[in-house]
Specification:
By secondary structure, the chain is of the alpha+beta class. Helix 5 runs antiparallel to helix 7 and helix 10 packs across helix 13. The strands form four sheets. Strands 1, 2, 3, 5, 6 and 9 form a six-stranded antiparallel beta sheet that branches. Strands 4-14-12-13 form a four-stranded mixed beta sheet, with no helix packed on it. A two-stranded antiparallel ribbon has the order 7-8. It starts with 25 loop residues before the first strand and ends in a 6-residue tail after the last helix. The protein contains 14 helices and 14 strands. The radius of gyration is 31 Å and the shape is elongated.
Length: 645
């Protein structure tokens, strides 16, 4: 079979085709939403007084792009392939009004960055890190404040300067398999400047600027410095007439088209070491729990089962309490339905849905189908997978409804809870934040059309699949438990403090959180600080370790609960690993206080904690579902291994 295969040439970037440009081909730049590390609320490009085309056209955006806040439009910036040009004038709009000046100054103070797109590549500022590796910082600042004002705590009255000139460097590569004149764009670098342009009084062409003399460097870069009398930065103030200009330069590059995203996704040496430390840290936690579970299963449980079966094989007249001790005493109560069984089934079903979403999304990411060139692809894939995984949520919850012997009317009502509980919470959070953002006219506001798509996906796809899975599970025979449940519940002895519900939750949630908290830092930086994260290989290893850790910590706590002659293990098996979600939320609050400098009032803070609260709940439900399923299988296995009269 191997000998029959023929060699082939391919490149890694599924779903994205390269585009060839001949010399002098006209290429237009696109503009995306302005983003800032100081606020999660993006801003549309044309919300600021930039040069506008006569007709503003929005690019087609997928569901994930809209939810991320991407708003992509055409622009007046354009170039001709492999033609260097200097000081091209974009436009000279009317003088700034008071409102425009205030809005532009606020965007500069809040640290917003301009995001442009060329051949599906985002504009980026290049820099070299401590290890000598070239890296990119996406976008470029709208402007900067005076270095003296930057030292003050209050930025309201800071003197702001706008970057009204951009120097674009286009890197291109010659593919040997393409025609001689064809080139492919492999880099889109930008260097912003601020300059108060002036016309050249000695030039016959009125478009010639004295501030664009190639023999003199007149552009101002942040932080603001003092310049000679021939040049100054473009201040932002009412009545100022800003002239927008740009340069274009082309440079050949050895980077192949298939590798052009590598610089954007480059990880520093120190970060790479931290990622591997995260994996080692998680693996140590997992090995510790694995050793404990192995000790329980291979030593304690094996000896208990052997002893119990030996006692049953001998006709003893002794009292049961003398011949039995520990977890076997609970054989008549261990499968007694817990308190609020329907609520537990809803939580486990939703958690199973979320853990499947994480798994499928991870697989697609590892296969390369969620390329960074496909903006919003990760979120779109997650939403579609969540809707399709509704059948799994319904099936898991339905099997639990069947095991708890719920009536058909209770089954229908609780299946509806599975379909609407978590999606309803997420939709309520989205609508609430949307109402707040609409008041600020931010790009983060989700359009009504997108909200309608989400509702259609929820009610027309996810909900029917939940009912389909639950119906199939409820229609099947009820799972036969290894032991019969007594009619009269057994009295539960006094529970030690370390086996109480609060203690098991606090202790049980630490280890799953400990397995992921280092990687969680990079994920939060990717989401809230707009840093690239594409190390799905490491993340998949951490995902596997997390699943194993949740299963093992739940089994350990369930075993000790049963050994304490307490048959109320159901909620403990779920809550113990699920409490890791509370630790994630607490860590997000710590990250907010120590790593973020959120500005802009209540709305950005509300967005941060609302989304992190929703993510923490989802993380907790997923961990709890894994722990419960593992504990349920463990309990069935041990009670199915002993002889019960």
């Amino acid at each position: 079979l191997c000998a029959a295969t023929t060699p082939a040439r391919a490149f890694y970037l599924p779903g994205v085709a390269p585009q060839d440009f001949a010399r002098d081909d006209l290429v237009n730049f696109k503009v995306n939403s302005l983003t800032s590390d100081r606020t999660p609320v993006p801003m549309r490009f044309y919300d600021l007084p930039y040069c506008r085309p006569s007709e503003i056209r929005a690019s087609a955006e997928n569901l994930g792009e809209v939810l991320r806040g991407d708003r992509i439009f055409n622009s007046l910036y354009q170039m001709q392939m492999r033609l260097d040009e200097r000081c091209k004038v974009v436009c000279e709009p009317e003088p700034l009004s008071e409102h425009e000046a205030d809005r532009l100054r606020a965007a500069i103070v809040d640290g917003y960055r301009v995001n442009m797109i060329l051949d599906n590549l985002p504009a980026a500022q290049s820099f070299v890190d401590d290890a000598g590796v070239k890296r990119y910082d996406r976008g470029f600042p709208v402007g900067f404040v005076d270095e003296m004002d930057a030292k003050r705590a209050d930025y309201k009255d800071a003197r702001a300067y706008v970057n009204n000139h951009a120097t674009f460097t286009i890197l291109y590569h010659k593919d040997e398999s393409r025609p001689d004149s064809a080139r492919r764009i492999v880099g889109f670098e930008v260097e912003p400047h601020s300059v108060k342009h002036r016309r050249d009084p000695n030039a016959t062409d009125p478009s010639v600027l004295s501030t664009c003399d190639p023999e003199r460097v007149l552009f101002a870069k942040p932080p603001a410095r003092r310049f000679d009398s021939d040049a100054s930065a473009q201040v932002v103030a009412a009545g100022e007439k800003i002239l927008w200009t740009y340069d274009v330069a082309f440079k050949p590059s050895d980077v192949r088209w298939a590798s052009r995203w590598d610089t954007y996704l480059a990880v520093s040496k120190s970060d790479e070491e931290i990622h591997w430390f995260s994996v080692i840290n998680s693996a140590v936690v997992m090995l510790f729990l694995s050793a404990m579970v192995a000790m329980i299963v291979l030593r304690t449980l094996r000896s208990d089962i052997t002893r119990y079966n030996a006692l049953e094989s001998v006709d003893l007249d002794a009292d049961d309490d003398e011949s039995e001790s520990g977890w076997k005493l609970l054989h008549g109560d261990v499968f007694r339905p817990p308190r609020s069984p329907a609520r537990l089934a809803v939580c486990v079903g939703t958690g199973a849905q979320l853990i499947i979403v994480a798994f499928v999304t991870m697989v697609f990411a590892l296969l390369g189908f969620l390329s960074p060139a496909n903006r919003g692809g990760l979120m779109t894939a997650s939403l579609m997978t969540f809707a399709l995984a509704g059948v799994a949520a319904g099936y898991v919850a339905g099997r639990m409804f069947r095991a708890f012997q719920l009536s058909p009317s209770e089954w229908r009502r609780n299946t509806a809870h599975v379909a609407v509980a978590f999606p309803g919470l997420a939709f309520a959070v989205l609508i609430s934040l949307n109402l707040m953002v609409w008041g600020k006219e931010g790009a983060a506001a989700v359009p009504f059309g997108t909200l309608f798509q989400l509702c259609a996906m929820w009610f027309c796809l996810s909900t029917p699949l939940v009912f389909l899975g639950s119906h199939r599970a409820f229609a099947a025979p009820a799972p036969e438990q290894p032991t019969r449940t007594n009619k009269i519940p057994r009295q539960v002895p006094r529970t030690p403090w370390y086996l109480k519900d609060d203690a098991t939750a606090l202790l049980g949630g630490i280890l799953p959180f400990g397995a992921v908290f280092i990687e969680l830092f990079f994920i939060l930086s990717s989401v809230w600080l707009h840093q690239a994260y594409y190390i799905f290989g490491v993340l998949s290893v951490v995902y596997v370790i997390l699943v194993v850790t949740c299963a093992e910590i739940a089994i350990v706590i369930t075993y000790f609960t049963l050994c304490g002659e307490d048959y109320r293990w159901w909620w403990k098996a779920f809550n113990s690993p699920a409490f890791a979600g509370a630790y994630v939320f607490a860590y997000s609050a710590y990250y907010y206080l120590t790593r973020l400098d959120i500005s802009g009032g209540v709305i950005p803070t509300a967005m941060y904690f609302s989304y992190m609260g929703l993510a923490s709940i989802g993380f907790g439900l997923a961990c709890g579902a894994v722990g419960f399923v593992a504990s349920y299988a463990f309990v069935r296995a041990i009670y199915g291994s002993v002889k019960i009269d």
